[in-house]
Specification:
The chain is of the alpha/beta class and 325 residues long. It has two domains: 2-169 and 221-248, NAD(P)-binding Rossmann-like Domain (Rossmann fold), CATH 3.40.50; 187-218 and 251-320, UDP-galactose 4-epimerase, domain 1. It has ten helices and 14 strands. Strand 1 (2-6), helix 1 and strand 2 (26-31) form a beta-alpha-beta unit. The two termini are 30 Å apart. The relative contact order is 0.14. The structure holds nicotinamide-adenine-dinucleotide.
Length: 325
């Protein structure tokens, strides 16, 4: 199939593009490089363009069979202070893409959704059928797009897979590509940089949560397990099966303190850290129940925290030795 990977010069999109190529799909990456990097798309046809640019989209869509939509702004805090930026890119941009796809006669899309659509869940592990009540504009923008997909499916037979990622982490085993956000806000790269002495001491947001060690619990999913979930979702849609919305997580929760221990074990260095107050809106625990993805997509995570931290550490070491732009 010819797969258009929108946002394929970013972290998760670049890993998925490689996974698609490895199983024989033809990949075209479409990216405005706002938070992506040309070198992450090396080896692929890269079309530089913005999803809000209708004519650029229309020309790249012709000849494609399916879309994977990774492009979005994705900082929760920034979405609170600048919702306009988020609704413009994630909602207006998303709709522009959907409409151009329908007009081009494409009817398969895989969407990067998030556990942020659930907000603060009443029950953990999270099942897909609980109410979706996002608590920040980022989550609202993702829920809007999920609902647009549901409407387009009913009205136009547009088939989708909404993949609700939990915390993406880790890097490709090759060490050539990995996580690269500017600014970086994710726990594992920040802990690794603190351990290496190339970043500030890690801030631990709250140690008084109702969890066994008092720190927040999250479900860390290896980026290449996420990439495989996209392959399974594409096979599912290719087989003419119904649209799906599934959690993509491991089902295992790790606390901030457990992540710090894993980083210390892998690097052999201590992680300087300080405990600071909780961040507003951070739920104590977000862990997936991944059973639905396993039964509908025949997908299951195969890597755990140790592989996540080891591959992220190799990537951090590689990254410090190369020019990235
Ligand atoms: N990283 C996570 O833990 C996580 C968790 C849940 C969901 N997600 C979602 O997964 C997706 C990918 O996340 P990521 O961490 O790889 O982010 P990223 O910033 O590395 O990748 C996003 C890519 O999209 C491109 N892009 C953004 N707006 C665009 C536009 N208007 N037109 C064309 N290209 C555009 C960027 O340049 C970038 O290459 C996002 O939609 C994000 O909301 C990520």
């Amino acid at each position: 199939m010819v797969v258009l990977v929108i946002g394929g010069a970013g972290y998760i999109g670049s890993h998925t593009a490689r996974a698609l190529k490895a199983v024989g799909h033809e990949v075209i990456i479409f990216d405005n490089l706002s938070t992506g990097y040309e070198f992450l798309a090396a080896g692929f046809k890269l079309v530089k363009g913005d999803v809000l640019d209708k004519s650029a989209l229309t020309s790249v869509l012709s000849g494609c069979d399916a879309i994977m939509h990774f492009a979005a702004h994705a900082y929760v805090g920034e979405s609170v202070t600048n919702p306009r930026k988020y609704f413009r890119n994630n909602v207006e941009g998303g709709l522009a893409l959907l409409n151009a796809a329908v007009d081009a006669g494409i009817n398969k899309i895989i969407f990067s959704s998030t556990c942020a659509v659930y907000g603060v869940p009443a029950k953990v592990p999270i099942e897909e059928n609980i109410p979706r009540q996002p608590v920040n504009p980022y989550g609202v923008s993702k829920l809007f797009f999920e609902q647009a997909l549901e409407a387009y499916d009913r009205a136009y037979g547009f088939r989708y897979a909404s993949l609700r990622y939990f915390n993406a982490a880790g890097a490709d085993e090759s060490g050539e590509i990995g996580e690269l956000h500017e600014p970086e806000t994710h726990l594992i790269p920040l802990a690794l940089r603190a351990a290496a002495g190339v970043g500030p001491a890690l801030q631990v947001f709250g140690s008084d949560y109702p969890t066994p060690d008092g720190t927040c619990i999250r479900d860390y999913i290896h980026v290449n397990d996420l990439a495989t979930a996209h392959l399974r979702a594409l096979e599912h849609l290719e087989a003419g099966k119904e649209s799906v919305a599934v959690n993509v997580g491991t089902g295992v929760g790790e606390s901030v303190r457990e992540v710090i221990s894993a980083v210390e074990k892998v690097t052999g260095k201590s992680v300087p850290h300080t405990v600071v107050p909780r961040r507003p809106g951070d739920p104590p625990a977000l862990v997936a129940n991944p059973a639905k993805a396993q039964s509908l997509l025949n997908w299951k995570a195969t890597r755990g925290l140790n592989e996540i931290v080891s591959t992220a550490w190799s990537w951090e070491e590689h990254r410090r030795g190369v020019r990235v732009r």
